Amino acid sequence: MSSSTPMRRDIRTRSARKATANNTNNNNGHNRQRASSEPSVSNSIVQDYTLLVEEHYSIEPKSKQLLPGLPFDKKRNKLQKDIDDDDNARDIHDFFNLICLVPVVILNGINWNWDILLYELKFAGGKKTIQDAWLNHPDYFPLFFAITIAYFVADLLWVILIPNCVKSPNVIIQHHIATLIYLIIPYKYPTETGWLMGACLSVEINTWLLIARRVFNKQESPCLFVLY
User: Fold this and answer.
1) Which of 3, 70, 90, 91 is the most core-located residue (most Cβ within 10 A)?
2) Shortest CA distance to 180 belongs to which of 200, 207, 208?
3) Strands 66-67 and 78-79
4) Quick one: how far is CA 101 from the chain centroid?
């Protein structure tokens, strides 16, 4: 009995040492797993910074090394710098339209009789026409005509000088030239055809809303829902 007791103690001691060694290895394993998981977090952060860097430099996709030259957008087939310049030119042109179309729309509205437009055309039994609703105001129609001409001339020159301010400069140039030629008619015959000018330019209300939606969408304005 006395000889077996030290052996049992020795076995227990060895078992305790083994268990301690296993726990130590497990803890080291957990520590290694945590250490291996840490770079994954930093990789996500580095990836965010890489996306920012890619906006200004050309980067090799696999090795993430800097390449000579400016970044190139394959979808648009343009350098990133040119894309940024186009976006800035469009933004400035949009703000120009948002400001300059306001007096065109307001003066157009002043030259209409809204009682006829909203009531008599519908309830007067066909006695009134759209032409009857046109006031051809002696004070406001010349101002409306002058501001309209000034807007189309300024916008035409803008698109000619800075064609990247719109997506289809040729279409805009042709449209503005045709509009300026057409405006000769109400200038010569304001009493007979002035209402046609007002009716056609009422489309600028829709133009203003479309531009405003695009601008406010970029700015993430809280009043965006009003334009939808």
Assistant:
1) 90
2) 200
3) unpaired
4) 20
Please give the C-alpha separations between residue 203 and each of 38, 100, 137, 141, in angstroms, as whole numbers: 59, 15, 20, 18
Residue type for position 109: G
- Single out the residue of 70, 96, 97 nearest to residue 84, CA to CA: 70
Question: How far is residue 160 CA from its own chain's centroid?
Answer: 23
Q: How far apart, in whole angstroms, are the C-alpha atoms of residue 117 and residue 132?
A: 9
Rg of the chain over Cα atoms, rounded to whole angstroms, equals 37
Q: If you search the block for the tokens 């809280």, which residue do you land on?
A: 222
Q: Taking the model in full, what pTM does it have? A: 0.62
Each residue's pLDDT tens digit, 122-172: 776 667 888 889 998 888 999 999 999 999 999 999 999 999 899 899 999
> Residue 57's CB: how many other CB atoms inside 10 A?
14
Report the C-alpha gap between 163 and 114 in whole angstroms: 39
The β-bridge relationship of strands 78-79 and 58-59 is unpaired
